[in-house]
């Protein structure tokens, strides 16, 4: 095994050849598909008379367009029903495993692959969804791709990619109570910027990540893309192996021991060379809230909206745009900002541990008057587990709605949308203009526990005061 970073080792092992463009032709071990970016890709294959080369390496689910209230077919939304039928047809025609609604395995694509043990260290993974970087939490190299690349992977099981540089992001120390993985990644993006990672893979290292469970690591890797990085990963360790052991697609028996030995060998070497290294101290991270229109426009919950002069020159124009769109003024505290809608869910924060943390805050409290609050589990398995633990009852008693699994209001390609100028406290990953279904709707990103705190207080609130 060559010396170097995990990224270099996995890249080299999956290199099929170098293309005339200078790009690498990279073998993709696992291809995840859903209903939004796959129909056109399958249509392109048909036009060329091509078949799916390795259907057994492709797994499908439905997540973006599924309603989280009434899931009866046909869907009320005709376009959603059309996309659903296309996926059902394409999977059947090509012999692709499809985790449909009611199968017990349906859910957000980046939630179901890890929970089934499909995602494993040392893999290359692709999906027509920007948050595919989530799978890097396992020590996989995972890329979000566009529709024409979905076609390429279906047809050839390979991708044409330029090799990335590797930046090591080290965070050391223990997070204070009320500070979560979501705060860590928002803090990193706020510091390095939304374009800071362009051309890079991010390797997250240090004692803070070592102490995180797999679901927390997934939250961090999920938002690598928001910092401009093409992928983000964490070297596999005992935490990774304990999470994977016994899952549906994890190796069994003697194969397990062989797999762990191999996974250990692909970790970044102690003397690996990086293109850049950035170090953070966990003690400097507080509950973080975005105030603007990019995930990089974040501040600590007790801080004030920055003035343009306080920001780097290249960030000033978008700050001016954000003040107007968000209706927030420089120097204003983010604490106490009134909220209309509180959404807990998404591929960033819709896993069981996220729901447990939010339920701790909701328990024995009531959603504030005039606030709509709802919880959307990331998958059918997450929903089942949450209900077995009674979390649904806690949320419902507090006045939250308990929904069916799906992407919900993260992208709002379903009935869950903001109305008009509503302001949302949201546990997802993007706060762009119009992101949550209303052209003038506003989004504040924060951890699930912080969203729960906002729901019961009716405004942005410091969750540490409720713990």
TrEMBL record:
CDD domains: IPMI (cd01583)
Obligatory cofactor(s): [4Fe-4S] cluster
Single Gene Ontology MF annotation: 4 iron, 4 sulfur cluster binding
Sequence ranges assigned to domain Aconitase/3-isopropylmalate dehydratase large subunit alpha/beta/alpha in this UniProt record: 8-458
Pfam families named among the record's database cross-references: Aconitase
Record flagged with keyword Metal-binding: yes
Listed InterPro entries: 3-IsopropMal_deHydase_lsu, Acnase/IPM_dHydase_lsu_aba_1/3, Acoase/IPM_deHydtase_lsu_aba, Aconitase_4Fe-4S_BS, Aconitase_4Fe-4S_dom, IPM_dehydratase_rel_enz, IPMI_cat
Cofactor note text: Binds 1 [4Fe-4S] cluster per subunit.
Role, per record: Catalyzes the isomerization between 2-isopropylmalate and 3-isopropylmalate, via the formation of 2-isopropylmaleate.
Family, as annotated: Belongs to the aconitase/IPM isomerase family. LeuC type 1 subfamily.
Subunit and partners: Heterodimer of LeuC and LeuD.
Protein name: 3-isopropylmalate dehydratase large subunit
Organism: Fischerella muscicola CCMEE 5323
Name of the gene this protein is made from: leuC
């Amino acid at each position: 095994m060559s010396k170097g970073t995990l990224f270099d080792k996995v890249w080299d092992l999956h290199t099929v050849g170098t293309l005339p463009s200078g790009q690498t032709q990279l073998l993709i071990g696992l291809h995840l598909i859903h209903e939004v970016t796959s129909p056109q890709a399958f249509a392109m294959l048909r036009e060329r008379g091509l078949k799916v080369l390795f259907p057994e390496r492709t797994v499908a689910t439905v997540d973006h367009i599924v309603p989280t209230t009434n899931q009866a077919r046909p869907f009320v939304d005709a376009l959603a029903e059309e996309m659903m039928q296309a996926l059902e047809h394409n999977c059947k025609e090509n012999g692709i495993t499809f985790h449909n609604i009611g199968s017990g395995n349906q859910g957000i694509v980046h939630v179901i692959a890890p929970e089934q043990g499909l995602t494993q260290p040392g893999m290359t993974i692709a999906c027509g969804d920007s948050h595919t970087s989530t799978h890097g939490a396992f020590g996989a190299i995972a890329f979000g791709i566009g529709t024409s690349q979905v076609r390429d992977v279906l047809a050839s099981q390979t991708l044409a990619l330029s090799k990335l540089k590797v930046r090591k992001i080290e965070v050391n120390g223990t997070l204070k109570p009320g500070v979560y993985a979501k705060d860590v990644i928002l803090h990193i993006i706020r510091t390095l910027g939304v374009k800071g990672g362009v051309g890079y893979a991010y390797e997250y290292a240090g004692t803070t990540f070592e102490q995180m469970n797999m679901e927390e690591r997934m939250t961090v890797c999920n938002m690598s893309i928001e910092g401009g990085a093409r992928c983000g990963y964490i070297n596999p360790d005992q935490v990774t192996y304990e999470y994977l052991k016994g899952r549906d697609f994890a190796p069994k028996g003697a194969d397990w021991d062989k797999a762990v030995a191999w996974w250990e060998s692909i970790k970044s070497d102690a003397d690996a060379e990086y293109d850049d290294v950035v170090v953070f101290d966990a003690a400097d991270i507080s509950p973080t809230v975005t105030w603007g229109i990019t995930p990089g426009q974040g501040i600590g919950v007790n801080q004030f909206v920055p003035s343009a002069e306080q920001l780097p020159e290249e960030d000033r124009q978008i700050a001016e745009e954000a003040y107007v769109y968000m209706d927030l003024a420089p120097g204003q505290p983010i604490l106490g900002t009134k909220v209309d809608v509180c959404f807990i869910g998404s591929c960033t924060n819709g896993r069981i541990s996220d729901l447990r943390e939010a339920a701790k805050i909701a328990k024995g409290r009531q959603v504030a008057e005039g606030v709509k609050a709802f919880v959307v589990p990331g998958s059918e398995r997450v929903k089942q587990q949450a209900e077995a633990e009674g979390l649904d009852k806690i949320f419902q008693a507090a006045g939250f709605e308990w929904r069916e699994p799906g992407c919900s209001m993260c992208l709002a390609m379903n009935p869950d949308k903001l109305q008009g100028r509503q302001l949302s406290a949201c546990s997802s990953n993007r706060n762009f203009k119009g992101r949550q279904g209303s052209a003038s709707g506003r989004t504040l990103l924060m951890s699930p526990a912080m969203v729960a705190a906002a729901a019961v207080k009716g405004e942005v609130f410091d969750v540490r005061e409720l713990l």
